[in-house]
Amino acid sequence: MAELPADPTLDEVRAYLAPLLPAHAAFDGWSAEAVTLAAGQAGVDPDIARLAFKDGALQMIDAWFRSVDHRMAEQLPAERLAAMKIRERITALVWARIEIVAPDREALRRAFAVLAMPQNAARAARMGWRAADLMWQLAGDKTTDFNHYTKRMTLGAVYGSTVLALLDDDSADLSDTRAFLDRRIENVMRFERFKADIRSRAEHRPSLSRFIGRLRYPAI
To answer: End-to-end CA distance of the chain, in Å?
Structure first.
């Protein structure tokens, strides 16, 4: 854990305290009390800490998830991912996140309860999109067409369902969650192969516009 600067900004305070919050949120909820306890643990002025999280539970959860993003990227640098196939990269990235949040399952359960509230749906969707987008970026995805969006929506669904599986996993070494993830990744790969096959067929399908164009401008 990096040291907090002598005169930190509120953003720096949030980032510094974020990894400590779930241990306290597991018992006290995503509350001001959890912020105070995390501040005491880190030696941060509690008034400044509460100011950094003045927007409440959503801001706390968002900061925690950002810290998960950061740890995932640290654990899987570009040079390590480059040696993997795309399927292995995505699996490794999702699994890294699962292992990071696994020790804080009760805090995660409470976070999901907050995010499931109707008034928080838009914020929850943005958090999910951010996680999926980062994973695809780290995996080397450079698509800019419609596939850019479908890939992230699909991966977001895979990650979300895998987290739910984690919450109910009593197996040793999270083996049930890992098996669940492997099945979901296989489903995604089949879907991607199906899309590629459809695109290939479309490219070779006779085009009415090209046919009419040849009638108007026959080759000489």
So the answer is: 72
Q: How far apart are CA 22 and CA 106, in angstroms?
A: 8
pTM to 2 decimals? Answer: 0.85
Give the C-alpha distances (Å, rounded to integers) separating 39 from 20, 22, 149, 214: 9, 13, 38, 73
Cα angle for residues 136, 88, 94 (degrees, 5° grid) = 55
At residue 29, φ and ψ (nearest 5 deg) are 75, 175
pLDDT in tens, 14-47: 999 999 999 999 999 999 999 999 999 999 999 9
d(CA 136, CA 151): 8
Token pair 């979901």 is found at: 184
Contacts 24+ apart (CB under 8 A), 146-150: 147/195, 150/195
